[in-house]
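Worked problem 6 (solution included).
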Amino acid sequence: MEVKVLNGKVVADKIKENLKERVDSLYSKTGVKPCLAIITMDNDYASKMYVKMKVNACKKLNIDTIIENLSEESTTEDVLKLVDKFNNDDKIDGILIEHPLSKQIDERLCFNRIALNKDVDGVNAANFGLMAMKENAFVSATPAAIMSIIDYYNIDIAGKNVVVVGRSPILGKPVAMLLLNKNATVTICHSKTYNLNEYLKIADIVVAAVGKPKFIKGDNLKEGVIILDAGYNKGNVGDVDIEACMNKVNAYTPVPGGIGPVTIAKLLEQTVISYENKNNKKLTLKK
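Solution. The predicted structure is:
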């Protein structure tokens, strides 16, 4: 059985190619670039890597970035003040709070403070609710990336058993809702799940989002399973021990080069959508 590599870079490049045209077109009319504000603490390995990649990707698309790097001693109030500042700044189209934050900070309170029209990383609980109900909303970037990969490679998920390993509010839970909205049969597993392997045995598709390197092994996977690995850990390894799974897998996303590049592309896409919504409204009013 030939194993198919679900190359995320190909998907991301396609998305970004379209975005470049859209930004250039609107910039020629307004003289104003899109702008993404990033609040970060720079205290996590994956966060450092992702912020760097996001800033580089923005530059290539003519998107401005503002970086606010807080100390590890910062408080919830410090983050909220920055969010309020960016919410009220008309030059800012998107606000990203790079996570994880320091333990003393109430992440959920900070996420929910982001204005819905600038919540381009889809972390506000209100956007989650809208998304779950199939309403117009910004979607968490990594779940959106997973769905883009599924769409690009024409993976049929209707009626299939999809096991999501991980239940975080910005990854496991939203991707489960998105999959459910596309008619998949979804099971969410997590650290308290009794006998995880029994669920993996029946999975047609596994979404790994647990944040533990090489956590999922190949022993109990179903023949022909599709692996969507959303993990990114030290040593550039995912949440799946893909080498140990190769005799069972039909297709998989590599780490790196799988879901990660598409996550960044979806974040930028939603930033551009916010930019378009704001500026097209202004252009319409001028007429």
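Discussion: Residues 141-259 form a domain with the Rossmann fold fold (CATH 3.40.50.720).
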